[in-house]
Design a protein that fits this description.
UDP-N-acetylmuramoyl-L-alanine:D-glutamate ligase; alpha/beta; 9 helices; binds 3-hydroxy-5-(hydroxymethyl)-2-methylisonicotinaldehyde; 39% helix; 3-stranded mixed sheet; 8-stranded mixed sheet
Length: 272
């Protein structure tokens, strides 16, 4: 069994980041180790307030113990992180990679045209340093625009604008780009999957509901499916199917996340 390390916050309540990645990656049949660089009482997307315990100073201690014991990983998946976490993360990846280890980077910092609360305007340029070494970079359209200094548009992207954005993301250093939130038709929503030589698209019927945490569900399933040997297009398509299923089964008053738990049986079946 392959072992993946996910590095992103623990939001104790709110169904995002580590609390989504751990169960979904496990359900993919991949051993999932975790490293939370911060612990929040709850996520920052819609709750009135939150506590934030920064664990930057602990990251080096963890790395030292892993080096001492020869603990290494076959894959790394980073999500929501802060500026102070970036150098320690790059150091852990350098120290603790098995040969051929894959790096998945979800630059979780923005959506719907805006940076998440708490991130300074210059944060995208810091996040770009993590993106530079990504084997698979998984931004939404807003994150892609901020990372590349492009116009931030909520909708109305043409195919050629999407393809220019993807070329700029590759220019940051990412090998494969999976751009989410792509739509050329109001009834459809999907992703563009690029290996730097060709771009393929995967679309589903658009669901009208806006939900928190869906980017984390998508990235977790994508990473798990790639580690299990799926192609990037297969992994993106499975990840989108699981996101859609999770949205469909989430009660209308469940505002802070999606009930991805109910989609786990379908995920296990797809990868068994
Ligand atoms: O889902 C992304 C995410 C992760 N972690 C925290 C967040 C968010 C989105 O708002 O606030 C703490």
């Amino acid at each position: 069994m392959k072992r993946l390390l996910t590095i992103q916050d623990i939001s104790c309540v709110g169904q995002c980041s580590t609390t989504v990645a751990l169960p979904l990656i496990s359900a993919c049949g991949v051993e999932c180790a975790i490293l939370p660089p911060a612990i929040l009482s709850n996520h920052t997307g819609g709750f009135k307030s939150w506590s934030f315990a920064d664990l930057t100073d602990e990251l080096g201690n963890v790395e030292k113990k892993w080096i001492e014991q020869g603990i290494k990983f076959d894959a790394f998946y980073t999500g929501y992180v802060c500026e102070s976490h970036i150098d320690p993360i790059l150091s852990i990846v350098r120290s603790c990679s098995n040969e051929g280890a894959l790096r998945f980077v979800d630059p979780a910092m923005a959506d719907n045209g805006k940076l998440y609360t708490g991130f300074a305007d210059d944060f995208p340029s810091k996040m770009a340093r993590l993106c530079a070494g990504a084997d698979y970079l998984l931004p939404n359209l807003t994150e892609a625009a901020f990372l590349t200094g492009s116009e931030v548009k909520l909708s109305g992207y043409t195919r050629s604008e999407i393809e220019t954005l993807i070329a700029k993301l590759h220019a940051l250093g990412a090998k494969n780009v999976i751009l989410t939130g792509v739509s050329f038709d109001p009834g459809e929503l999907g992703s563009a999957v690029s290996d730097g030589t060709k771009i393929e698209y995967d679309f589903n019927s658009r669901l009208e509901r806006m939900s928190h945490g869906t980017g984390d569900v998508f990235a977790s399933v994508f990473a798990g499916a790639i580690v299990r040997g799926k192609t990037a297009l297969e992994a993106a398509s499975l990840a989108a199917d699981i996101v859609c299923e999770a949205i469909r089964v989430t009660d209308d008053d469940h505002w802070y996340g999606v009930s991805f738990e109910k989609a786990i049986p379908a995920l296990v079946k797809a990868l068994c």
